[in-house]
Design brief:
It is a single chain. The protein is mainly α and 257 residues long. It folds into two domains: 61 residues; 194 residues, no CATH class. The chain is built from seven helices and no strands. The radius of gyration is 35 Å and the shape is rod-shaped. The termini are far apart.
Amino acid sequence: MKRLFSILAIACIMVFGTANATTSTATIATTVATATQDDNSAENAEESRGFHQELKKRFIEGGPGFMGIVLLCLILGLAIAIERIIFLNLSTTNSKKLADEVEDALQSGGVEAAKEVCRNTKGPVASIFYQGLDRVDEGLDSAEKAVVAYGGVQMGQLEKNVSWISLFIALAPMLGFMGTVIGMIQAFDKIEAAGGMDATLVAGGIKVALLTTVFGLVVAIILQIFYNYIVAKIDNIVNDMEDASISLMDLLVRHKK
């Protein structure tokens, strides 16, 4: 009996000892993992701060004059691009659905009901439909001319301010190249004043030249991506407007019959 109690006591001690050891090991592992995560977070934060500090340093080294103008080109270009993207997305309309609704309104309530559908729908396609329906009483030729004329008006609204983005795309690298030329002139002025060739004399001017060029090209690349997207979006909307105009004239012809 004593031997049995001894064996049970030893087993209990081993079980509780193993459990305590496991808990201690898990606690240590958790502490190590937390410390590692904290170290990684600190390193990432340090790298992030380092990138921003480096960008700020390079911007200041490039000179506040040209770099500030290049940055202004980026800000204005992005503002116009974002405004155009929002406007174009709001101008997108399901033309087939609109044409079906206008056809149903023409059959059930006549021209006024179809015009009401167009008034309650946003987008250039609905505006073109409304202008065509508004002139249908004057004849199909008048309605077609109104559709064509107002289509040109809507196209102008879609392309509004897009030329400014192309201006900033061309202007940013030009300013960068101008900074390059000025930096090289400053470098040669220092060589001439020193009366000899020294790398430390020309390093500053060459660095300014390269930084302004890099920032100008980066701004132009960013704006070019937005510009191409906007132009493609405008082309899609214009094609949709043309198809919808043809559908409208077909509806008016059938309605007149």
